[in-house]
Amino acid sequence: MSLDELALILCDMYEMDEWLPNPVFDKKEFTRVSNTLWAIGEFRNYVADHIFPQTKTSIKNLEAMVRSFIEKMDDFASMNQQNSSIFTTAKMVGENIQDLLYAME
């Protein structure tokens, strides 16, 4: 799977239907959506960094990378309670991506 294909799949599955609510009226939902969009971008960057200089990888390699991403986000979430919510969200996004990759096998 190429990085472009991965980006399209992630956009279609997770980003397309997200919208940022007005933070004045719905701060909690704004934070959730913002953290989710950040996590998807971080995962794309994580994959790109790990396969560089290649631009393609297998589903099996993506599964290994998402497991590593989930572990890192879990570690980061436990380091500091003040900013753990962004990493907890990233861990959940990673778990969703992991489920998607398993379904694609």
Notes on the structure:
The protein has about 100 residues and is mainly α. It has helices at about 5-15, 25-50, 60-80, 85-105. Helix 2 (about 25-50) crosses helix 4. The radius of gyration is 14 Å and the shape is globular.
Short description:
With 105 residues, this protein is mainly alpha-helical.
Strand content: under 5%
Report the oligomer.
single chain
**Tally of helical runs:** 4
Main structural class: mainly alpha
Order of helices and strands: HHHH
Count of extended strands: 0
Distance from N terminus to C terminus (CA atoms, Å) equals 12 Å
> Considering DSSP H and I runs of 4 or more, what fraction of the residues is helical?
over 70%
Q: Give a short account of the largest sheet.
A: none
* Rg from Cα: 14 Å
Q: Could you report the average pLDDT, rounded to the nearest whole number?
A: 92
| Global morphology | globular
Q: Which segments are poorly predicted (pLDDT under 50) over 5 or more consecutive residues?
A: none
